[in-house]
Amino acid sequence: MTRPFSGYLNVAYAHGRLRATDGTTGDLPATSEWLGSGGISYERGAWTASLCARYVGSHSLDLSRQEAGAAGGFLEGNARVAWRTRFTYPTEFFAEVRNLLDGKGDLSASPIYTPSRVPIEGRQALLGVAARF
Fold first, then answer.
1. N or C: less crowded end of the chain, CB within 10 Å?
2. pTM given for the model
């Protein structure tokens, strides 16, 4: 018999440092010191319900991008309900809400992008079908 509940929790801390060619050191820009994610799911028969969240700590922007300030410092949560069945192939119908709490925040963008920060998307509701064959 399987357990109906499962979950996970991840926490990471890292302090990125950058050493210049002249030997000086400083904080590595666009790098969060704290990251975290966690989730829980409940399964009963063909049904599954889950909640998950991620945290991105505040981090400074890359000054070489000509913009000072910070990004990050947000919590984002998602919820999902799914029903599994089998037609010709294993099929799953699901409803999902991303950024459930409609949190605001942004991430430092990669140097290949024009903007120095990318906002997280607002709340989104998704309905879908996934078939494996």
1. N
2. 0.76
